[in-house]
Amino acid sequence: MEPDSTPARLALRGITKQYPTVVANDNVDLTVMPGEIHAILGENGAGKSTLMKIIYGVTRPDAGRIVWNGDDVRIANPAAARQLGIGMVFQHFSLFDTLTVAENISLGLPAGHSIAELEQRIAQKAAQYGLDIEPQRHVHTLSVGECQRVEIVRALLGEPQLLILDEPTSVLTPQAVQALFQTLRQLASEGCSILYISHKLDEIRELCHACTVMRGGRVTGVCDPRQESEASLSRLMIGSEPPAVRHADRPAGEVVFSVRGLTLPRAHPFAVPLENISFDMHEGEILGVAGVSGNGQQELLAALAGEDRRVARDALLLDGRPVGHTSPSWRRNHGVGFVPEERLGRGAVPDLSLAQNMLLSHQNRQTVRRGFVRRPVLRSLAGGIIDRFRVKAHGPQAAAGSLSGGNLQKYIIGREVTRRPRVLLVAQPTWGVDVGAAAQIRAELLALRDAGCSILLISEELDELFEISDRLMVIAKGRVSPSLPTREASLDLIGRWMSGLWTTETPHAEA
Ligand SMILES: Nc1ncnc2c1ncn2[C@@H]1O[C@H](COP(=O)(O)OP(=O)(O)OP(=O)(O)O)[C@@H](O)[C@H]1O
């Protein structure tokens, strides 16, 4: 590629960052060449995000050197990073719904630009990289993939020499992933370096020229992912191959939970209205719900969990009893568990400890007696989950917000699974979770199913849905398709249904 005399675009030497209870980065070296797409791979809590935050000036290292195009630099804050030519596209977008694309982008720029001029620059940049966006559209009308393109164009307007992407494909359809890869390859061919954080081994092998593997805050290897197999990458990362998930066909039991003609107008202008949704959930069965995000998944989960209080009494039946009017805590007390897709905020309270967070779903006689919270019980329950799910955390007293994204996800799933619910409603259970932990979470869901639990699995990962669901259906534009046994479903059929095209395509479909 580049002759040896070319200085690296970015060289990190001996970067160390210590948090009170953990060394998040321990003497890390990283070399990224101009025009190189460089993956950072590592299990949850390995220290990837911390390292990216150091490069982007969000976090200061305790020790180590950052060398940029051959010169030692200090990166005091993100503005300084952008000044050097470092751009970052975060996993969570920071766009205001009520503003247009151009207005959003103008917020990050120095004053003095006219919006019309900016719209033109955005359109130019977008066209140059095949990114289909319209600067005048309001953000609330955009799909998730379009929002990501806005973030990428925003970063590209800064003419970066290094672009950092944090798990960029977790929100994209397979087609959008390919379009993104094309953009990234074009950028790289023009000399821009790319740091690519992902848990998806197949994507890393397809896209990246180099890969730095981290484990426990340290670099454990650097490889050319094109020369590796998924199994060998996995071994580099977690020391073993992810266990295969066993999925045996078994007959489903009685209907436990039913949805009957659930129709809900949108609760706010950006919500998706639900239209005449009906389906049954059986004992000992995983019912998978496929769909591109933003098609009513969140609204459906809010209605089933009791967060949306407008649901008609008869629209939901638990063991044949109407429960549409009941509260979330009533439903929890009657054996229904929920794992929302937003981990912080809905799934956990960041400032509270993991033990205190147990109370979100374990408020019962065991944990609260005569109005007093039994702290030792909470601590031991939390400790049990930390051990069983191998959550990397400094014990039950660690604040939820101090955990890495994937570890918090494992904790929240563990918290719900250990309640042994009869009905579990779970959204995106393995988002941002490394391959080993994802396999473990799927195995736990299967074990729960085998114990008789009825599980509704809302996911955007088709592989995951096909791997562990017994039946599949699709949600599109606030409506659900009929369901059909997974062994009778094909990727092609589910893909077609995801765009809302289902009619009488399969005779086996159950309404
Ligand atoms: N602000 C913080 N305070 C305390 N500990 C932290 C903080 N941020 C990160 N950590 C700890 O540093 C370690 C590395 O976390 P980091 O978020 O960098 O991991 P990661 O590799 O990005 O993980 P994931 O794949 O789950 O996102 C973890 O043990 C985490 O708990």
TrEMBL record:
Sorted keywords for this record are: ATP-binding, Cell membrane, Membrane, Nucleotide-binding, Repeat, Sugar transport, Transport
One Pfam family of this protein, by short name?
ABC_tran
Task: Provide the ABC transporter domain boundaries.
Answer: 10-241, 259-502
Q: Which SUPFAM superfamilies match?
A: P-loop containing nucleoside triphosphate hydrolases (SSF52540)
- Report the GO molecular function annotations: ATP binding
Q: Which domain of life is it from?
A: Bacteria
The scientific name of the source species is Yanghanlia caeni
Q: What is this protein called?
A: ABC transporter ATP-binding protein
